[in-house]
Amino acid sequence: MPEGPMEQFLRSSHFSGGNAAYIEDLYDTYLHDRNAVPEQWSSFFDTLPRTNGSTAPDISHATIVQHFELLGRRQARPTPAPGSGGIHLEHERKQVKVVQLISSYRFRGHQKANLDPLGLMVREHVPDLDLHFHGLTDADLDTTFQTGPLYFGKQEATLREIVESLEETYCGSLGAEYMHITSFSEKQWLAQRFESVRSKPTYGDEARVDVLNRLTAAEGLEKHLDSKYPGTKRFGLEGGESLIPLLDCLVRRAGEYGGKEIVMAMAHRGRLNVLVNILGKNPAELFEEFEGKRLVNTSGDVKYHQGFSSNVMTPGGEVHMALGFNPSHLEISCPVVIGSGRARQDRRDDKTGEKVVPILMHGDAAFAGQGVVMETFQLSQTRAYKTGGSIHIVINNQVGFTTSRQEDARSTEYCTDIAKMVQAPILHVNGDNPDAVMFAAMLATDYRYEFGKDVVIDLVCYRRRGHNETDEPSSTQPLMYDVIRKHSTTRELYSQKLVAEGVVTQDQSNEMSNDYRARLDKGEFVVHNLVREPDTSLFVDWEPYLGHDWRTPANTGLKLKNLQDVAAKIIDIPDGIKVQRQVSKIYDDRRKMAGGALPLNWGMAELLAYGTLLDEGYPIRFTGQDVRRGTFSHRHAVVFNQKDGEAYLPLANLSDDQPQFDIYDSVLSEEAVLAFEYGYATTAPKGLIIWEAQFGDFANGAQVVIDQFIASGEHKWGRLSGLTMLLPHGFEGQGPEHSSARLERFLQLCAEHNMQVVNPTTPAQIFHLLRRQAIRPMRRPLVIMSPKWILRHKLATSSLEELAGGKFQDVIGENELDADKVTRVVLCSGKVYYHLLEERMARGIDNIALVRIEQLYPFPDVELEAALKPFTNVKDVIWCQEEPMNQGAWYSSQHHMRHVLQGIDPMLHLRYVGRISSAAPACGYMSTHLEEQKQFIDEALAPDA
Question: Where in this chain does the record put each Transketolase-like pyrimidine-binding domain (predicted)?
C-alpha cells in the first residue's frame, strides 16, 4: 500500500529511528499538558488520528507507539556520553530538552542577533536561549545527542556543536522571524534554508566582487552629489548603501525565475540612488534637475518623488522595471504600485504572479506608523488584489525624522511586527554585512516564488546625515551621531573584508571608485545591465490615449437589436441555479424591461452599460465593499445559488471570447483599495476600472489618494488615469455620515480639466456616461455622485430607445413646459430635481422651469446657455441644492453659472436656495430633515412676488 500523509511525515529526517523513545516521552507529556511541549510538537500531535471519532487529542499511547513501530522506529537509542555506562532515562529526557532548545532558537534567536551596524540597539537578555533554562548544563556540552528536527547535515552531534550551529544560524548578522507562521510546510522550508547553510550565502568570489561594485556605485553617487550640490535636499542613501546590491540581487533572481516585469514603490530615502544605479537613469539628466531643468507640460515635482522605467538584462532574459511616482505621504505609493502590478499580471494572464513582481521599499517609522501598511498587507491574499506576493524592504534607519526612542516610535519590538498579521516571514539583516544581505535577498525571492506570499527584509542600517542634507541631526540624536561620525562606511568595511580574504586587492578596490566617479563626470549610464534598445512589447501602450481632451466625441449609442441581444444575455440564469426570492423578482422585472414591457430602472441600465461594453471588447474591473449586490440592493450583478452558495456572473458569460470581467467585493478599506484601483487604472488604459464607495462619505478615508494621485497625478507627473469612482450621494434623513459624498471637495480640486465630476439623474444618463468613459479615448478620472433614493424612483426611468439612440447630456433642459410662459428657472443637480418636479406637478405650476446640470466639471457653459436660451421671459434664476450652502456645488460653480447668465442677459442675477451653512454635512433627525427640505422647496417654487 502507498504511504499516507502521516507515514510520509513521520519518515522525515527529524523522526529518524533513534528519536522514537524521546518522542514517545514528549507525547506522554503532551497528553497531560499540551502547553508543556514546544508549539511545533503540539501542532504535530494535534494532527494524529483520534480514537472513537473524538476530536479531542485522546489518541492512546499505544497508537503512537504503533505508528513508530510500523515505520521501523524501534531502533538504536541516542548515543550516550562517553563513559556514561549505557542508555538511561535521564539522557532521553535531556534529548527532549535539546529539541526544546532548538525550538527556542528558531522562535527567539533573532532577539540575540547582531543586527545594528552602530551597536546601539538595546537587546534584552533572552532567557530561553540559555542551557540552564532547559535543564541543560555546561557539563552536557560534550554529550552527543540526536540532532532531531535540526537541518544540520548529520544525525547526531554534541550539544556544543548544536549550540554553535544554532548561534551561527539565528544569532549572527541575520535574525529570522518565521515561527509565527502556522503552515508547517513553510516553516519546514525556511528552517531548512537557514540551517543547512548557517544563514550564509553560497556564492563565489565573482559575485562578491559584483556586490562591491554595487556598493561602490551607491556610495559614489552620494559623494558626487554632495560635492557637486552641497546642502541640497536629496534624502541620500548614506548608511543604507546595501540597498543597491540588495535590489540588484532581487531583480536578477526574479529574472532567473522567468519574471518579465518588476514594479517598485519607495518614498524618499535613497530614491535618487535607485533611479541612477538600479533603473539606469542617466546621471546627466539628474544633474540637470538639480540645476533647475523644467519638465514640459507639467507642474513638476521634487526630484525625490519622480518615477522612472527601463529595461535591464538578467540571467533569465530582459526585464522591464517601473518605479512608481510618490507623494510625501510615504506608504500610500505601495498599494498604487501593487495595483499597477496586478494590471500588468492581468494583461499577461499571469495568474500566479510569476512574470510580474512587486518590490516595495519602506522607511521604518512609516512602516510601523501608517495604517495603509496594514491595509496593504490585508489585500495581499484576497482574490481581487493578490499578486503572488510582494517583497518588502524596510530601509531601517532606526529613526523617524527626529524620533528614535522605541517607546515613542512604536509599541512593538520591531518596526516590522505588523507583517506578522499575514504570517509573512521577516528577515532582519545587518546592513553592514552585505553577504548576509545577499542571502536575505535570495531567500526572500525564493520564498515568494515558492509560496506566493509576501516576505519582509528589514535592512537595519542608519542615515549618515539628518532627515535630509540640511538638518543637523546631533541636536536630537547626539549619541547616535557621535558613533556615526566614527563609523566606517559599508563599502569601506566590505572592501577591507574582501582585501583581507584575498578576493580583491586594495588597488582594484580603489580603481572601482575611480572608474565610477569618471563615468559620472562624463554623464554616462552607470547601470551595468541596462538594455539600450529595449523590447517594447514589455511596455504598456498608451499611444492611442494621448492628446485627447474632454470634448473628444464618443458614440455611446448602438443599434436597438444589439442592445436587446445583450439584455437577453445579462438576464439569463442557467437551469439548476436556485435564485433567492427577491432576486428572482428583480430578474423577472429585468426580463420585462428587456422586452419593452417595463421602463428601465437604474440597475438594469447600469448592467446594460457593462454588458454592451464587454460585447464591444472593453474589459471591466469593478471593486468596492458591496458591489456585487450593491449597497442599496439595486445591482445584483452576481446571483448566488441558494443550494450551494456558488456565485454566477451573467456578465462573465456573455460569450466564449469576451474580454475580462472582474467584480469583487473588497476588504473593508477605502485608502488602500482606492489606491490599488488608481494604480491599476494607470496601467490598464483600455476598458473601465471602477471603485464604488459603500456610502460616498466613506471616500473620506481615502482622501490622500484623491488629493495626491487622482486629482493631481497628471499635472505633477504626466500620469493619465481613467479610474471611475461611484460615490452614493443624497440627503435622505440618514444622518451626517450617510448623506454626502463631499461634492464640494472634488469641485475644489478641479482645475485644468483634470477630472470629470457628474451628478446623473436618469438610467439613460448612467448608461451613456459609463460607456463614454470607456469608449472615448480621453483618460481622466470620472467622479460620479451616484444615487440611492432615486435608484427605484417611479420618475427615474428610461426607455430602451433612449439607451440605443441617445448620448450623455451634460445639461438636461426643461422639456415639459411652454417656454414662453416660464418666468423663473431653477438650476439644480442630482436628487433635488425629483423633489422639485414632484412638488411642481402637485401644485400645477407651469411657469417655473427646472434645468439639470448633470456634469459639474468641466462646466458645460455652452450646453447650459443652449438650455436657457428658449426662456426669453425669465426674470428670476435660482440655484437650488439640498446640501448646506457651504457644501455642494454652490461655492465652486456659481461663477460659471453667472458667466453664462451674463452672456444671455446682463440683468439676470443668480440667487441661492437651499439649506443654510452647516458644520456637519446633514442633520440626524428625520423630522428636521423633512422640515428643512420642505422649506427650501417651498422657497424655490414660491409664486412670483
Answer: 600-793
Asked if residue 853 lies in contact with residue 860, where contact means CB atoms within 8 angstroms, the answer is yes
- Cell numbers 422657497 label which residue? 939
Which three three-digit cell numbers place residue 861?
457653459
- How far is it, in rounded angstroms, from Cα 371 to Cα 481? 30
pLDDT of the residue at 35: 67
Q: Which of 619, 502, 442 is CA-nearest to residue 205? A: 502
Rounded-to-integer distance, Cα 192 and Cα 455, Å: 17
- The enclosing H or E element of 148 equals none
Helices marked H in 657-808: 671-681, 703-705, 713-717, 743-749, 763-775, 800-805
CA separation for the pair 436, 442 (Å, rounded): 10
- CATH code for the domain defined by 560-805: 3.40.50.12470
Q: Can you tell me the distance from the alpha carbon of 674 to that of 473, in angstroms, rounded to the nearest whole number?
A: 37
Please state, in angstroms and rounded to a whole number, the distance separating the CA atoms of residues 660 and 687. 10
Closest CA to 7 of 49, 39, 36: 49
The predicted structure's pLDDT at residue 649 = 97
Give dist(CA 263, CA 920) in Å, integer: 41
Q: What is the pLDDT of residue 742?
A: 97
pLDDT tens digits, one per residue of 408-445: 888 899 999 999 999 999 999 999 999 999 999 999 99
Question: In DSSP terms, which residues pair with 689 in a beta bridge?
Answer: 621
Distance CA 473, CA 480 (A): 9
- Classified by CATH at the fold level, domain 813-941 comes out as Rossmann fold (3.40.50)
Domain ranges of the chain: 5-113+122-168, 205-217+229-493, 560-805, 813-941
Give the Cα separation of 515 and 712 in Å (integer): 41
What nine digits make up the cell of 56?
479531542
467: left (phi over 0), alpha (psi -120 to 50) or beta: alpha
Shared fold status for 205-217+229-493 and 813-941: yes
Contact in structure between 423 and 181 (CB atoms under 8 Å): yes
Q: What is the mean pLDDT of the chain?
A: 89
Helix (H, G, I), strand (E, B) or coil at 158: strand
Q: Is 844 exposed, middle or buried (0-12, 13-18, 19+ CB in 10 A)?
A: exposed
Task: Give the length of the chain.
Answer: 945
Report the alpha-carbon distance of residue 352 to residue 345 in Å, rounded.
Answer: 8
What is the spatial order of strands in the sheet that 391-396 belongs to? Answer: 174-177, 426-430, 455-460, 391-396, 356-363, 261-265, 317-323, 308-314
CATH of the structural domain 205-217+229-493, one choice from 3.40.50.720, 3.40.50.970, 3.20.20.210, 3.50.50.60: 3.40.50.970
pLDDT at residue 321 is higher than 70? yes
Picking from 356, 353, 351, 336, the residue whose alpha carbon sits closest to that of residue 681 is: 336
Q: Is the pLDDT of residue 455 over 50?
A: yes
From its phi and psi, is residue 329 left (phi > 0), alpha (psi between -120 and 50) or beta?
Answer: alpha
pLDDT in tens, 850-877: 999 999 999 999 999 999 999 999 999 9
Convert the pLDDT of each residue in 223-247 to its tens digit.
Answer: 988 888 887 878 789 999 999 999 9
| E strand or H helix that includes residue 786 | strand 782-786
